[in-house]
Design goal:
Shape: elongated
Order of helices and strands: EEHHEE
Strand content: 25-35%
Radius of gyration: 23 Å
Helix content: 10-25%
Distance between the termini: 72 Å
Number of helices: 2
Strand order of the largest sheet: 2-1-4-3
Structural class: alpha+beta
């Protein structure tokens, strides 16, 4: 028994094994631009498809404020980089 009443020592403990699932990113904070100017950031899953991204971006309150009810012409989604809404 050790000094504190514990059996064994920390020096005898096994080193933790690396598990990639704990360090792999599943989402990213994307900057969202309206006509080329960054207006907000939205957390989007890395495996999100273009239609999902468009739905998330257009549903965002800050983006809706900047659109002022006007329809958008195009949404440019660069995976892993950014999203740009063209009005």
């Amino acid at each position: 028994m050790g000094a504190a009443g514990n059996a064994g020592s920390i020096l005898d403990a096994a080193y933790p094994l690396f598990e990639e699932k704990y360090v792999a990113e599943s989402s990213k904070e994307y900057p969202v631009s309206i006509n080329g100017r960054v207006r907000t950031n939205i957390n989007i899953a890395l495996d999100a498809a273009q239609p999902e991204v468009e739905q998330l971006v257009l549903g965002n309150e800050v983006v809706q404020k900047w659109l002022e009810g006007k329809p958008h012409k195009k949404i440019i989604y660069v995976k892993g980089k950014m999203v740009n809404v063209v009005v």
